[in-house]
Amino acid sequence: MMRTIHKIMMTVVCVASSFTVQAQTPGALHVLSDNHAFYRLQQKHKFLLLPIEEKEENAHLRIIKNNQVVKELNCRLAINKTDYSVPLKLDENQDSEILIDITFSNNRRSTGSIKDFVAWKELKTSDSFDTTNREKYRSIYHHTPLWGWMNDPNGMFYKDGVWHLYFQHNPYGSQWENMTWGHSTSKDLVHWTFEGDAIRPDALGTIFSGSAVVDKNNTAGFGNGAVVAMYTSAGASQMQSIAYSTDNGKTFTKHANNPVLTADIPDFRDPHIFWNEDIKAWNLILAAGQEMNIYSSKDLKHWTLESSFGHGYGNHDGVWECPDLMKLPVNGTGKEKWLLICNINPGGPFGGSATQYFVGSFDGHKFTCESKPETTKWMDYGKDHYATVTFDNAPDNRHVAIAWMSNWQYANQVPTMQFRSANSVPRDLGLFTDGGETYVSVVPSKELLALRGAKTGKPTEACELVINIKSQSKPTVITLSNDKNEQVVMTYNPKERTFSMDRNQSGNTAFSDMFKATTVAPTHGTINQLRVFIDKCSIEAFDAAGKMAMTNLVFPTNPYDKLTVKGTARTVIYTLK
Ligand code: FRU
Prior knowledge:
Number of domains: 3
Strand order of the largest sheet: 31-41-32-37-38-39
Family: Belongs to the glycosyl hydrolase 32 family.
Signal peptide: 1-23
Oligomer: single chain
GO molecular function, one term: sucrose alpha-glucosidase activity
GO cellular component, one term: cytoplasm
Low-confidence stretches: 1-23
Bound molecules: beta-D-fructofuranose
Domain Glycosyl hydrolase family 32 C-terminal: 459-565
Number of helices: 2
Shape: globular
Number of strands: 41
């Protein structure tokens, strides 16, 4: 899928460059001190390509036009060598003069003469930015940013046949910084097109995680069917702001009276808004320290604090982040219960980031957990499943979740350069009971079936393994390997009711000493069919019936092209595209 997009992007780039001036060194350097310089250029082209050196520290750039700062950003401007370039979009009014004020971090003073920094030779202007994929580990059918860093999925909604996925994006480098909402769309939930950056930092701060709703009844007064996004403005403090879109999420106008919600709590973020038909009003749930605050509103602008949930409940070994709250049917009972999603970092079952959840009741004012406070439930038992939230307004009352496939323990170090991180495949959520407790069920969304191509005899870099387990009397051991003796071993043990994945010998694990792991999940009964999605550097294993999910990254030197399945099972492999 991304291959298709890259091909299209390449075409765009080629066409554009045939009538534009080739990239060239464009401006003049004025050294002002050991760590401070001006770079002055005449604006002639759409982009200034900034050369980035990953291991360097951030420099602070202020883009000045006519004595006014028009943009500020941090990037690891190249000092010794250029790893890759990122595009700084210059404004439309051509032929104006631009001054870039650049401050390197103070301890750069020992680097030597600022005038010799590589950046000055490699800054280029251009009318195009080449996003052709240069990455061995870029996913084929998972959403990835075309360039730059990505973390949490944000503001996901469905409207008029299109799925919208925003994401925490750094457009100026492949490590976390300059938080901006990138935007991608899909007509089928599996093939994504990058639409550009939708919400950019402003005087209130950078744009942290949040959500978006379709305001069908114009409760906010921004227009019928306007898309209203709520995000955290992360300045000196964290506060909540809103922005609306009347062009189906393509562009947003920030509300003039932001912020709409403040508090004197340091960790106060990641608002998730949703229409609650039970009370005919909006609810908002957000992370407030070690609890989730719940609010209500009639107009999305004025919010009343209703209650807080979480004190003494579940895991508190890290920061509570990125909540979601929804009503779901409990399989086979005709009843409904509420699911409260609470992402936590660190504190996950195998270290670092993970998604815990609570099941209970919610009356629009207060969430009551039905389990004992000491009960902790995890949505996915892998190491690379975080910031999970669902789409607003999904058709057929579906609750479709997407996670960020990484872990804050090593997300900035994984071995890619042009981009960092992919999202999980979409998953439909539900509830089921086992031993008197209600758990979340996680099933790969039906749209993934459309990716299936030909059946194949051996695994490929992008494929799905369907393993039908014919006997529950002994373990099923699934080993993926390659000619470099790299392997991933998955074991379903029916007696112990567990599924595990061992990635200790999976390939490149050296970039972080927290990467090697064997992750283990409870299966809540028997698994009759396993579905395993492989895509370059990720493995997502599911009980097809939804009782177990496990997501782990792997970085094999060569794709795993060998599969052995021990036990009594019938395996089918589909190539995915
Ligand atoms: C979770 C998180 C959020 C925050 C965002 C910043 O991964 O820390 O709490 O809004 O990332 O990028």
